[in-house]
Design brief:
Blueprint lengths: L5 H10 L12 E2 L4 H8 L7 E5 L5 H7 L4 E6 L5 H7 L6 E5 L7 H8 L6 E6 L5 H10 L6 E7 H7 L10 H9 E9 L4 E2 L6 E8 L10 H13 L6 H8 L3 H10 L13 H14 L1
Parallel strand pairs: 2-3, 2-5, 3-4, 5-6
Antiparallel strand pairs: 1-8, 6-9, 7-9
Helix pairs in contact: 2-3, 6-8, 8-9, 9-10, 9-12
The structure holds S-adenosylmethionine.
The site of S-adenosylmethionine has 22 residues, from strand 1, helix 3 and strand 3.
């Protein structure tokens, strides 16, 4: 079944009484070149397993299933059950769990559905309303996955792949870089979707590091400091740091100097190693 053909999709949707839900971010891919590229650049091959989040009518799911040994997907919308039973009927290596990915114990699901797979890749065209929470969940829960290859809004892709110390870098960029190495893969125009969204998209790949990119004595404190700092990214570091930690600006100024950081530095100017250094100074004082 040609799932990038608009008439085929319309026909199958109509027969099952399915209509798009804007609230669930249902913009389905209709550009035939995109899903094969996501699957291939995302690492899918013989001997690997894939996890998909949000199947829609299964256009990417089938590309994953034809390359990987096994696929399991999490899709929130139960109305898609009969649609997918038809569109993916020819594949016997796909299992779909109908649930909210944000409320799903992914580690347990992987143990259950993909036991024995040692190369697991996440590939998805993410619903845009939960891009950051999904990416953070996949990384923070330290799942046994090798890489996350996802389509996100172009602006989100720019932020997620931004170099630390540049204006585009934000709290999520910093957190993502703690767990993974991001790479921009390719851009996708809004016309590649049905219905077409108001923004363009891009596919990024996050290669998950076995060990975090920086070692910090207190991870929770590290993320608290990053979040507080980027909430006031154009202000000098001293203010948000002092507000978050309760340490006086004078003491903090001394700590920054000891780490080789200017006391007038703004969060967006700092490299991740510098955040890690100041975090360790603070955690040793506490
Ligand atoms: N993979 C399909 C494609 O590329 O055409 C669909 C992508 S569409 C952008 C996002 C999909 O994620 C939809 O099928 C939607 O129902 C599903 N979805 C939305 N929120 C979800 C959630 N919290 N958990 C799991 N799936 C979700």
């Amino acid at each position: 079944m040609e799932l990038t053909n608009i008439n085929t999709i319309k026909d199958v949707m109509q027969r099952h009484g399915f209509t798009f839900s804007k609230a669930l971010g249902q913009n389905f891919l209709i550009n035939p070149s995109v899903c094969p590229r996501i699957a291939e650049l995302g690492g899918c091959a013989k001997g690997t397993a894939a996890i998909e989040i949000g199947t829609g009518v299964g256009v990417l799911t089938k590309e994953l299933a034809s390359r990987c040994d096994r696929v399991f997907a999490v899709e929130i919308d139960e109305r898609l059950k009969p649609v997918l039973a038809e569109t993916l009927a020819e594949y016997n290596n796909i299992e779909i769990v109908f649930a909210d990915v944000l409320k799903t114990d992914m580690n347990a699901l992987i143990r259950d559905k993909l036991a024995g797979s040692d190369k697991i890749y996440v590939c998805a065209n993410l619903p845009y309303y939960i891009t950051s929470p999904v990416i953070m969940k996949l990384l923070e829960e330290r799942l046994p996955i090798s890489a996350v290859t996802v389509m996100v809004q172009k602006e989100a892709a720019d932020r997620l792949c931004a170099e630390p110390g540049t204006r585009e870098c934000g709290a999520v960029t910093a957190a993502v870089r703690y767990y993974s190495t991001p790479k921009m893969l390719f851009k996708v125009s809004r016309g590649s979707f049905m219905p077409a969204p108001n923004v363009d998209s891009a596919v990024i790949r996050l290669d998950v590091n076995r060990e975090p990119n920086y070692t910090v004595a207190d991870e929770k404190l590290f993320f608290r400091i990053i979040k507080a700092s980027f909430a006031q990214r154009r202000k000098q570091m001293l203010n948000p740091l002092s507000a978050e930690t309760g340490i006086t600006k004078q003491e903090l100024a001394k700590m920054l100097e000891e780490c080789g950081i200017k006391t007038s530095a703004r969060p967006e100017e700092l490299k991740m190693e510098e955040f890690a250094a100041i975090c360790d100074k603070i955690s040793h004082k506490k």
